[in-house]
Amino acid sequence: MFSDKLYQHLLDNAATQVKLTATDTALCKQYFEPVLFAKNTIIEQENTVPKYLYYVVSGFIRLFYYNEQGDQVTTHLNCPPGFITAYTHFNNCTKSAEHVECITDCELLRITKANLDIICEQSPVFKDYSILVFQMALAYNETRARELASLTAEQRYEKLIANYPAIIHHVPLRYIASFLGMKPESLSRIRRKIGS
Length: 196
Description:
Layout: H1 4-15, H2 22-31, E1 33-37, E2 42-44, E3 52-58, E4 61-66, E5 72-78, E6 82-84, H3 87-92, E7 99-102, E8 106-112, H4 113-122, H5 124-150, H6 153-163, H7 167-170, H8 173-179, H9 184-194
Antiparallel strand pairs: 1-8, 2-7, 3-6, 3-8, 4-5, 4-7
Helix pairs in contact: 4-5, 8-9
InterPro entries: cNMP-bd_dom (IPR000595), cNMP-bd_dom_sf (IPR018490), RmlC-like_jellyroll (IPR014710)
Domain Cyclic nucleotide-binding: 36-122
Protein name: CRP-like cAMP-binding protein
């Protein structure tokens, strides 16, 4: 049986951004579904409309696609707590080119687009919160694109480790290298150089 602790993670996160009422809390528990997934499970497939927006209580998740050479390219790594999906496609109900995969065992809360619309209609607070979540996702992607263009490989790695130190212990280096826009061998050289 799922404990209220899973919901509490989300409610605590939301409370840092908006002021929740008892009604908002009840709506959260009504519309967000708790789920567990095992390591290496693909929870959203490419070429389909994303079914859910996921809140990561624990575990690590990535977005990835296959390039023309058939190599996996990791475009997003999620470090809990936080939301993940192919945001634009989820929001617009369009097909995504990316898979969503659990890198580790994951505890998640998920909500469909239809239920997210309902909860936002019934709760102005959750509507504000969902807008903030999507704005943060856009800002994150803009920052990431800027950093890929302006920072050296070493600087990108150092910033990632400074912000998310646990990532190195849970996410395979090949995924981290791909996410940072480099080959695994380059990442290995950087790690040896800086002694991490």
